[in-house]
Amino acid sequence: MYYPDDTVEEIRIRSDIVSVIGSYIKLKKSGSNYVGLCPFHNEKTPSFTVSQSKQMYHCFGCGVGGNVYTFIMEYENYTFVEALKYLAERAGIKLPEQEYSAGEKQRIDLRNRLMEINKEAAKYYYYQLKSDRGQAAREYLLSRGLSEDTIKSFGLGFANRFSDDLYQYLKKLGYEDELLKQTGLVSFDEVRGGHDKFWNRIMFPIMDAGNRVVGFGGRVMDNGIPKYLNSPETAIFDKSKLLYGLNIARRTREPYILICEGYMDVMALYQAGFTNAVAALGTAFTESHAYLLKRYTKEVLLTFDNDEAGTAAALRAIPILRDSGITVKVVNIEPYKDPDDFIKSLGTQEYRKRIDEAKNSFFFEIDTLQKNYNMDDPEDKTKFFNEAAKKLLSFSDPLERKFYLDAVAKAYYIDAGLLQRLVSRLGSASYKNEIYARKLAETQSPGRVNKDDGIIKSQRLLITWLTEDPSLYDKLKTLLKPEDFTDGIYKDVAKLVYEEYDKAGEVIPAKIISCFDSTEEQSEAAALFNAELLGDMKEAERQKALFDTVYRLKEESLNIQRLKAIEDNNTELLQKIIKQKAKLKNTITSVLK
Question: SS3 for 509?
């Protein structure tokens, strides 16, 4: 449901963040802010800061942050609308009824009705499992080691042997055929009429992150084909954007999420106390899965099956997760086939030890690569190190690459200097240009920033300083534009800061944070308003820090424009940029006087 921006802002203003967060955790006044123990990660020394003047929070320990909406969404696991309604009720504000266009209303009504039918189907399947008809299914689940509590927690059910049982049940509830066709639960043909997609299968309700049933998976209890069958895509079900178990795992207080291969592994891990496990729905891991996970965690541990297929799945998932900014490790479950078998054989504590010993994903890739070569054969050994060197080139940060290079050299008994020369040789000019072009393209796209290098730090500092000192904005607005902030969310936040100054003459960080949809983006935006302040420095230090920051940011912006001018063969623009760079120091000095 959509609510007007004025309504959203009114509720935020009337929901004092110190009061709201103080009702959940103990806050203590510290200077102009309040501090407390972060509710989103375990800590003994308070690093969670709440600013009453900025109406925002930020944890310097785990990096979460945002405004009052973000906090309620994260702490209560609410959607934005749920958080809005909660805070509106708390503030005594009556929300307006929302009007929709005919097309929007039709789409919303369809989604709501499909959700309603899926919920009824889940209840029916669960009833069937508990009935005499579901006895064999119950025995099968219990034989797989699942407890009654786990079966109930995941809402497991049973589609019985009658091929139109669910269809007849839903018809009695008044649902018309045309609507049932769109659920993916019922099919129609001239011979059989309406009949169920799932029959004689154990049923696994698939829920979205908001605990709403959006589809189903069905498993046979014998050697039938296919072993697993999922709902087809519908208006509410897209398996490439869903993860089984995420509705439970999103509530975990663990700093990581476990990714396994199937329903049974998720439930086995849950039953063993690992309530932070998810699985893809019979499809390859996708970028959509990665970005979905990034809303809830910064680290994932892959615990796929211990076979060739499981290794291949891990190798496919690692770069996707890493490119999205998530730290990836791999759990070794040898000699057992899957997490379920491991835990049944060795128990929970041993599995937790394997989690603690999980391997860095890069070393997993290198170790897996090495298995393809005979290290006693000089030719094979040379090929291996050439491939390993190519992988080392993926680290653009020289320090990070150096650390990984030294670790590979130590693990595989090769001179680090020799390996470094090999990496340098492979890192030819053309390869480096390719890497740089890719990085440049990323800075010009709305993607998220993952590296805290000098330019990124400069952008963060400048956004904080601009927010804290309106007079600084008056000086810099003609020299620096939002377009000079070259990295994703930094550019977006800078644009909003400029707009607020031009429109209202002041900037309220909490209001800007509300402009971002995901809690992850809100945390990133909050971090931009919490850099170190110039006011804590002596005047000479302050001026130098400000000059250096503005110069670095503007110079980088001009460099990017120069490359674009060269690419477009725009000689006139190139000459203009060169002149600007030549005068840049004097220009900044003049502006900052």
Answer: helix
Q: What tokens were used for 132? A: 């005499």
Query: In 3D, which of 481, 487, 485, 484 has the Cα closest to residue 452?
Result: 487
C-beta of residue 18 within 8 angstroms of C-beta of residue 52: yes
Distance of CA 74 to CAs 2, 96, 211, 382, Å?
20, 25, 15, 50
Q: Using CA atoms of 435, 441, 445, 451 in order, give the dihedral in degrees to the nearest 10.
A: 30
pLDDT number for residue 436: 43
Handedness of CA 329, 333, 338, 340 (dihedral sign): negative
CATH code, 5-91: 3.90.580.10
Task: Confirm if 157 and 129 have CB atoms less than 8 A apart.
Answer: yes
What fold, for 454-591? DNAb Helicase; Chain A (1.10.860)
Q: Give the Cα separation of 322 and 330 in Å (integer).
A: 13
Contact present, 515 and 483 (Cβ < 8 Å): no
Please give the pLDDT value at position 562.
82
Rounded Cα–Cα distance for residues 554 and 561 (Å)? 11
pLDDT value, residue 440: 45
At residue 256, the 3 state secondary structure works out as coil
Is the distance from CB of 302 to CB of 310 less than 8 angstroms? Answer: no
Residue 147, helix vs strand vs coil? coil
Per DSSP, 160 falls in state -
Maximal CA-CA distance, the chain: 87
CATH architecture of 238-371: 3-Layer(aba) Sandwich (3.40)
Q: Is the peptide bond before 39 cis (omega within 30 degrees of 0)?
A: no
Please tell me the distance from the alpha carbon of residue 364 to that of residue 314, in angstroms, as a whole number. Answer: 9
List strand residue ranges (DSSP E) for 164-212, in order. Answer: 186-189, 193-196, 201-207
Give the C-alpha separation, 65 to 50, whole Å: 9
- The pLDDT of residue 428 is 56
Residue 593: name the closest of 471, 485, 501 by CA: 471
Q: Which of 67, 66, 30, 35 is nearest to 48 (CA)?
A: 35
- The pair of structure tokens assigned to 529 is 């308003």
Decide if 495 contacts 528 (C-beta within 8 A).
Answer: no
pLDDT for 304: 94
Q: State the Cα–Cα distance between residues 464 and 466, nearest whole angstrom.
A: 6
pLDDT-flagged residues of the chain (< 70):
1-2, 77, 97-101, 428-453, 486-487, 531-538
- Taking a C-beta distance cutoff of 8 angstroms, is the pair 208, 197 a contact? no
Considering the domain 102-237 in this protein, what is its CATH number?
Answer: 3.90.980.10
Considering the entire predicted model, what is its pTM?
0.61
Give the orientation angle of helix 454-468 with respect to helix 539-567, to 10 degrees.
120
